[in-house]
Amino acid sequence: MVINARLKCYVIKASVGILISLFWLISYAAPKAVISFDVVPPKVVQDDFGSRLIWGVDHEIIVTVTDNVAVERVMLYYRNIGASIYIPKLMLNPILKDDYTVTIRASEIPSTGIEYYIQAKDVSGNILLHGLDFVPLRVTVKKRKVASNH
Hints:
Blueprint: H1 2-33, E1 43-45, E2 52-54, E3 59-66, E4 71-80, E5 87-90, E6 99-104, E7 113-122, E8 127-130, E9 137-142
């Protein structure tokens, strides 16, 4: 009987230990791993669409992205007008506000211009596309006027 009593005592201690471990897991670790019920995608606003860019000058794209929880990532996908493959670029959030920016270097812009779309993803995995890969936003090139000395 004493052996059974000790065994029961160990089982109770082990059960309490497991319950404490489960309580810790639920209290501290689980909030980071809980499936979110957020189904609202981020919102993307582009005030200055900039449908024309100047040949030989870097082109900056700025968008404002907000979300009801938190934005995880904003990506720009761009290509030469008429090309089939998009080039991905991470949009940066340098001042930790809602503005995301990316610069396309002048050397990456062909004389015809570029097409692009933006993908915003929140921490719950909801995605919003600003523009579409099959109907992208288009920015054409405006030739730089050469100043004359006449």
